[in-house]
Write a structure and sequence with these properties.
CATH class of the largest domain: Mainly Alpha
Membrane topology: Multi-pass membrane protein
Structural class: mainly alpha
GO molecular function: transmembrane transporter activity
Order of helices and strands: HHHHHHHHHHHHHHHHH
InterPro entries: MFS_4 (IPR010645), MFS_trans_sf (IPR036259), Sugar_transporter_CS (IPR005829)
CATH architecture of the largest domain: Up-down Bundle
Number of strands: 0
Distance between the termini: 16 Å
Number of helices: 17
CATH topology of the largest domain: Growth Hormone, Chain: A
Number of domains: 2
CATH superfamily of the largest domain: MFS general substrate transporter like domains
Keywords: Membrane, Transmembrane, Transmembrane helix
Radius of gyration: 21 Å
Subcellular location: Membrane
């Protein structure tokens, strides 16, 4: 008890300005690599197809290479999880993001584009794991862990930013030139954010949060396995509406209906405040209880699209899934870190890798279902089943305080 008291009383003080700067830096880094690197391709692809740079099949293949790179990046982050490694790799992989985006402005070669998008996905995967993990460690040392979820506001904001960067100059750019806005915004925002994060005072620790010497323990145990399985269900469940919701709107609604374009915009709008909301709920009711509530709401959103085909189901799906999927990420990451304080970055990397894998499985399963004669609407049932699976295993995750108090 004495060692814990010493740690608690010796926690460094932090000013509101410092907190804001760190969270802003993390949010900008995620905005750059995850939205200007990854999600911007969603609104870009129709323009690139219309410009005859690629066709729809080639566009899907390029997207798959990017997803695969994201998975590889998360796996690399499992290996490179120490604080000193994170400090070295953040600027390196931000540079990879910038260089690969620059190459995209210069090439129409399909193979080059695929390789470059794979590399960009690797950079995204590494940084998406390491930046929030570093910030969480910094916040824990200052007794501010409950604020960690705010860094994901950068993802929601980035959805709107990326949409504007594509639609705004759409009439003036063509083909590979359409990547220039993402590049020009990435350089100042990404570099400033990374430089701020590298300054964070996070020692390479020899003791955990209770003051005990850190010992090597398995990554998978009775506490973490249900959390991994729950997170796998979340990844498979959310990716279906996040990939196919606009297409489902095109199939179900008249050609001039505003929701054909409005569903994705609605997702982006509700995503922006969702990290704050789930961060707050996690602090008030506990991260694990908030996670279970999150699953129930997200499940209801995907189920709504199946039960109420048409505008009502589409709006409910957009709002409930868009308002929860980032919360699933931040609550799961924080719960994992609370269960295994000494393995925060490594556990985070493993979860993101699993999440990335299930995101690749979702579209593949949907393709198999459609090829077998199923409809896109009925394919959303895969998402319902996956989220139900995740919800069930969320109830098998032990509360961190109970887990650590076991004899």
């Amino acid at each position: 008890m004495l060692s814990r008291a010493v740690i608690m009383t010796s926690s460094p003080t932090v000013s509101p300005k410092q907190l804001f700067t760190v969270l802003l830096a993390g949010g900008l880094v995620l905005l750059v690599v995850h939205t200007l690197g990854r999600f911007i391709y969603t609104p870009l692809m129709p323009y690139l197809v219309a410009d005859d740079q690629i066709n729809a099949s080639q566009g899907a293949a390029i997207a798959t290479w990017n997803y695969l790179g994201y998975l590889v990046g998360a796996l690399l982050a499992i290996r490179w999880h120490r604080i000193d490694q994170i400090r070295f790799l953040l600027p390196l992989f931000m540079l990879v993001h910038v260089i690969t985006t620059l190459i995209m402005t210069q090439t129409d070669h399909l193979t080059v584009m695929s390789v470059v998008r794979w590399l960009n996905g690797v950079a995204n995967g590494v940084i998406f794991v390491q930046a929030p993990a570093l910030i969480l460690e910094w916040l824990v040392l200052r007794n501010r862990a409950s604020l960690s979820g705010l860094v994901y506001i950068g993802v929601g904001t980035g959805l709107l930013v990326s949409s504007g960067l594509v639609a705004g100059p759409a009439d003036f750019l063509e083909g590979a030139q359409r990547w220039w806005p993402a590049l020009l915004v990435s350089i100042p925002l990404g570099w400033w954010g990374v430089m701020q994060l590298r300054k964070l005072d996070v020692p390479v620790r020899d003791h955990d949060d209770s003051g005990k010497a850190i010992t090597t323990t398995p990554l998978l145990d009775r506490a973490s396995v249900p959390l991994f399985l729950s997170y796998a269900g979340a990844g498979l469940g959310y990716i279906l509406p996040m990939t196919f919701l606009p297409l489902l709107a095109n199939l179900e609604l008249p050609a001039d209906h505003f929701l054909q374009d409005g569903t994705w915009m609605l997702v982006a709008i509700v995503t922006i405040p969702s990290p704050w909301l789930w961060n707050k709920l996690g602090a008030v009711m506990g991260d694990l209880r908030a996670l279970r509530l999150n699953f129930i709401i997200q499940l209801a959103g995907v189920l709504a699209a199946v039960v109420w085909p048409g505008a009502v189901g589409l709006v409910l799906c957009a709002m409930l899934v868009g308002g929860t999927f980032v919360g699933t990420v931040l609550l799961t990451q924080r719960t994992g870190r609370a269960l295994h304080p000494h393995q925060g970055p490594r556990l985070s990397a493993a979860m993101v890798a699993l999440y990335g894998f299930t995101q690749m499985v979702g579209p593949w399963l949907t393709k198999q279902w459609l090829d077998a004669g199923g409809t896109l609407l009925s394919a959303f049932g895969i998402g319902v089943a996956a989220l139900a699976f995740g919800l069930v295993f969320a109830f098998f995750v032990p509360r961190p305080e109970v887990w650590h108090s076991r004899s």
